[in-house]
C-alpha cells in the first residue's frame, strides 16, 4: 500500500490553494492554470498571457520547490544558415562547452517564436534561453519567468523593456566611423544602404552616418539612404538604383557586409570598379569580408563576443536572479582594407 507523508499532504494542499488563488484572480479554472504552468496547449493567447502575468506577480513556485534545470542552454534565432548567425552560434557554444553544458538551437521562419516553441522549452527546462534578433511575446516572457528560466536577447530587433536583459553593440558609433572614414578620404557624395526600418540597430547606424555628414558640413541628397533587408539581394538592388542616378555617389556605406557585397555586384554590372569608381564600406566584419575582391573595408561588430557575453549573463541570471545590471553594449571599430580609396578626379 502506498502511503503519503504528512509533509507531502501539506505541500499538495498548499499548491492547490495557490493554484486556486491564481485561478480566482484570472477568472479561469484550476486546470487552465495547470495547463499554462506546464506549457500545454488548449489555452487562448489572451488567457495564457493573463495567467502567466499573475503567476509572475505572485512569484509562484511549484510543489516541492522549483525543478532543477537541465545542463542545457537554448539558442533561438532566425536565418540559421547566414554567416552572421554562424558567428553567434560559435560564441554561445564556446561558453556552453566551457561550463559543461549542451546546446539546443531552434531556428525560426520569422523573427517571432512559433506557438509550439514555448511548450518544448518548458519541458526541456534549460538553464537559460538566448534569443538573437527576435521579438519575444510578452506571454512567453511571463512563462519563462514564472518557471525560473532566465533569458537574454542578443542585438534586439526593437527597444526592449528595461527589465529585459540584452547585449548589443555601439551601432551609432559604427555608422559614424564608417562615414567619417569616407569623408577623410575626400568623398562628398556618400550614400548609405540602410537596414530594415523596424530594426533599432539599423536606425542607429543611419543616425551615425547622418551625424558624420552633418559634422563635416555635408548634405544628404534626397534618396541617398534607401532602406531594406540585411541581404545581398537588397544591397544589389539599392546600389544599382543609386549608381545609375544623374548624381551618383562616389562612396557607399552599407549597413551590413551582405548588402556591401550586393553593392559589389551592382558595380560590376554597371562596369564600375571598387574602389576606383566607387568606394564601399560594410558592417559586421564577417569572415567573407576578407575574401571579397577587393577585401572589404568594414565596421567590426564583435558578434562572437556578444554571444559569449549573452551566454555568461544568462548563467549569472540563473545563479543571481536579482542581478540588476543586465544591459551591455560592446564597442565597434573600423577595419580598413582595400574597398575604399580617394575619389578619382573625374567622379569627384
Strand content: 5-15%
* Highest CATH level, the class of the largest domain: Alpha Beta
Structure classification: alpha/beta
Give the termini separation: 93 Å
Q: What would CATH call the architecture of the largest domain?
A: 3-Layer(aba) Sandwich
Shape: elongated
Placed side by side, the strands forming the largest sheet appear as 2-1-3-4-5-10
Number of helices: 12
The main sheet comes to: 6 strands, parallel
Low-confidence stretches: 1-15, 61-66
User: Mean of the pLDDT scores?
Assistant: 85
Structural domain count = 3
CATH topology of the largest domain: Rossmann fold
How many strand elements?
11
| Oligomer category | single chain
Instruction: Give the proportion of residues in helices.
Output: 40-55%
| Superfamily (CATH H level) name of the largest domain | Response regulator
Report the radius of gyration as a whole number of Å. 25 Å
Q: State the order of secondary-structure elements, H for helix, E for strand.
A: HHHEHEHEHEEHEHHEHEHEHEE
Task: Give a quick summary of the entry.
Residues 17-51 form the HTH lacI-type domain. The chain contains twelve helices and eleven strands.
Tell me what you see in this structure:
This protein is α/β, with parallel strands linked by helices. The chain folds into three domains: 20-51, no CATH class; 72-169 and 303-330, Rossmann fold (3-Layer(aba) Sandwich); 171-302, Rossmann fold (3-Layer(aba) Sandwich). The chain has helices at residues 6-26, 30-37, 45-58, 83-98, 117-124, 138-146, 171-184, 200-215, 232-243, 257-269, 287-291, 303-319, and strands at residues 72-78, 102-108, 128-132, 151-154, 166-169, 190-193, 251-254, 279-284, 297-300, 327-330, 333-335. A six-stranded parallel beta sheet has the order 2-1-3-4-5-10, with helices on one face. A five-stranded mixed beta sheet has the order 6-7-8-9-11, sandwiched between helices. Helix 3 (45-58) crosses helix 6. It starts with 5 loop residues before the first helix and ends in a 13-residue tail after the last strand. The model is unreliable at 1-15 and 61-66 (pLDDT under 50).
Amino acid at each position: 500500500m502506498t502511503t503519503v507523508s504528512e509533509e507531502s499532504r501539506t505541500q499538495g494542499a498548499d499548491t492547490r490553494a495557490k493554484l486556486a488563488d491564481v485561478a480566482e484572480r484570472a477568472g479561469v479554472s484550476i486546470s487552465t492554470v495547470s495547463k499554462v504552468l506546464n506549457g500545454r496547449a488548449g489555452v487562448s493567447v489572451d488567457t495564457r498571457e493573463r495567467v502567466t502575468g499573475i503567476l509572475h506577480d505572485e512569484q509562484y513556485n511549484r510543489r516541492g520547490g522549483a525543478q532543477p534545470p537541465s545542463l542545457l542552454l537554448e539558442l533561438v534565432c532566425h536565418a540559421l544558415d547566414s554567416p552572421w548567425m554562424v558567428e553567434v552560434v560559435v560564441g554561445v557554444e564556446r561558453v556552453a562547452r566551457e561550463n559543461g553544458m549542451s546546446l539546443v538551437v531552434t531556428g525560426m521562419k520569422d523573427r517571432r517564436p512559433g506557438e509550439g516553441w514555448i511548450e518544448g522549452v518548458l519541458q526541456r527546462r534549460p538553464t537559460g534561453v538566448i534569443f538573437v534578433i527576435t521579438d519575444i511575446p510578452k506571454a512567453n516572457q511571463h512563462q519563462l519567468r514564472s518557471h525560473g528560466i532566465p533569458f537574454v536577447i542578443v542585438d534586439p530587433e526593437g527597444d526592449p523593456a528595461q527589465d529585459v536583459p540584452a547585449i548589443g553593440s555601439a551601432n551609432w558609433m559604427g555608422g559614424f566611423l564608417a562615414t567619417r572614414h569616407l569623408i577623410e578620404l575626400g568623398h562628398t557624395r556618400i550614400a548609405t544602404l540602410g537596414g530594415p526600418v523596424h530594426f533599432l540597430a539599423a536606425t542607429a547606424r543611419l543616425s551615425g552616418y547622418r551625424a558624420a555628414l552633418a559634422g563635416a558640413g555635408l548634405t544628404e541628397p534626397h534618396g541617398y539612404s534607401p532602406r531594406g533587408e540585411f541581404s545581398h539581394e537588397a544591397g544589389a538592388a539599392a546600389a544599382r538604383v543609386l549608381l545609375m542616378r544623374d548624381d551618383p555617389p562616389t562612396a557607399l556605406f552599407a549597413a551590413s557586409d551582405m548588402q556591401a557585397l550586393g553593392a559589389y555586384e551592382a558595380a560590376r554590372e554597371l562596369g564600375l570598379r571598387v574602389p576606383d569608381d566607387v568606394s564601399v564600406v560594410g558592417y559586421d566584419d564577417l569572415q567573407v569580408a576578407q575574401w571579397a575582391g577587393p577585401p572589404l573595408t568594414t565596421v567590426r561588430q564583435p558578434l562572437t563576443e556578444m554571444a559569449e557575453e549573452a551566454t555568461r549573463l544568462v548563467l549569472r541570471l540563473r545563479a543571481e536572479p536579482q542581478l540588476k545590471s543586465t544591459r551591455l553594449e560592446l564597442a565597434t571599430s573600423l577595419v580598413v582594407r582595400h574597398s575604399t580609396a580617394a575619389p578619382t578626379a573625374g567622379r569627384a
